[in-house]
Amino acid sequence: MTGSTRPVATLTAGLMLATFFGFCITPLWDIDFWWHAATGRAILEAGEIPDTDPLGIYQVKDLRAEVLLRAYWLSQVLYQFLLEGFGTSGIIVLRAIVLTSALGLMMWRAHRLGAGAFWTGLITVLAGCTALAFSGDRPALFSFLGIAILMPLVDRVRKKPDCPAALGLISLMIAWANLHGGVTLGGVLLVMIALCIPLEQRLRGGRPMAKDQLVVAILIAGALATLLSPNGLDLYRMVWEYQGSEMQNRTSEYLSPLAAWQRLGIAIPGYWVLLLLSLATLVRLAQQRQLVALAVTAFLLIISANAFRYVPFFLFGAAPETARALQELTPRSETWHRVRGAANIGLLLGACALLAWGATTGRAFRVGLKEGRYPVEAVAFLQQSGLQGRIFNHFNWGGYLSYHAGPGITPFIDGRNLEFEVFGKYTHILWVTELGRRLLDQEDFRLVITPDFQPLTGEHYPINDYLDRQPAWKRIHRDEVAQVFQRIP
Fold it and tell me: Which of 143, 292, 365, 486 has a CA-to-CA distance to 331 between 20 and 30 Å?
C-alpha cells in the first residue's frame, strides 16, 4: 500500500465498520434472548449458578440439560445488568459492539497477514453482509468475538511466545468458557494448531525448535483453560454425545447453509462467495506447505458447510487467511493496480451511500422490539388481570413470558428445550392431534397463549379454533399478535 492510497484505505475501513455498526443497531428480535435474561436475573437473585431449572419449566434429567443450565451464566448475568441499567437499548448496542469488534479484528488480521486494501475490503463486505444474519441477541455472539480474538492471539503466540501472549490466550479462554459453550470449538482449534506446528516444520524440511515447543505448550495450556468453568469437561462430553442425536437433527441451526436456504429461505450469498474463494486458496496454502493455515481454513470451511450455526466461525476465523492467499495470487500489473484503485474508491463511496441510506430510511440505527415478534399486549393483559397458573404457550414466547409475565405464570415450554418429550407434547397439543386433545385435558393448564399462524410457513394453528368450540375454554384476549384463552372452572 503506497502513501497516497493509505488514507483512502483507512477512511474506507472506518466507514465500512461504521456502516456495519449502524445496521447492527436494529430492534431486538431474538426469541431466546428473554430466557437468557430471565436466567441471569435468577442467578443474581439466588447468588449462585443453578443446578435445577430456575424458571421452573423443566426437570433436569440428563447431561445436556445440566450443561445448558450452566453454560452461559456470565453472558446471562451481563444481559440482566444491561437490561436493568439501559433497557433493551443497552442489549442492542452491546450486540453492535461485539459484532463490529469481531469484524474489525478480522479486517485488522487480514491486513497484518499481508492482504492489501482491495482483498481486505472485499472479505469485509462479504463477511459483514453475512454476519448480519447471525445478529440474534444470545451468548453465541461472544463466541463469534472469541474466535476473532483467538486467531490473532495465536499468531502472536507463534511469533513471540512470551508471558504476555500466554496470559492473554489463557485469559481469553477462561472468559470464553464462562460466556458460551462455543469455547469447545476454540479448544479444538488450539489442539489442532498445536499438533500441526511440528508437522509443518517437518514438511518444510526442518525440525521443531525450542521455540516451537514453547508455542505448543502455550496452546495446550489455552485449551486446558477452557475447562475452568462450572461445566468443565462435561461441556465437551455433552457436545460429543449431542452429535447426530435426534435433538440435533431437529434443531434448525444445525441445518446446512444450503438446507437453511431451501427450507427456511435464509440466503447468505456472501458466505458462498467466501467459501468459493477459500476453496481456491486452499491449493495455495498446500503448495506453500502452510499446514496450520490449511488445517484451520479447511476445518472451519467444512463445519460451516455442514451446519449453519458455524458460518460466523468461518467468517471471523478463516477469511483473513483467504485474503492473504488471494493477495499473493494477485498479478502485479499496472492494469490490475488501476482496477484495485477504482474498486477501493467504489468501496468508499458505497459505504458512504449505504450508511446514509440506512440512517435516512430507518433500516439502521433503530432500537426497541421488533414489531409482532413478542406477545407484548397479551402479556400486559395478563399482568393487569392478575391471572396466574400454568400456561400453554407458543415455543417462541416461553422466554418472554418467563421474564415479563410475573412469578404467577409458568410457561410450558421455551427455546431451551431441556426435555425433548415436552416438545413432542407441545407439537401434539398445538396441532390438536388425538393425543394432543387428551394432553390438553390432562395437563394442568389454566391459560393458553398462541398466535394465529406458524411464523415461518403461515399455516393456521388449529388449536385456536378448537378452543373456541370447547365449553371449558373461553377467549379472554386477542390482538394482532396473540390470543389468550382461559380454562373455565
Answer: 292
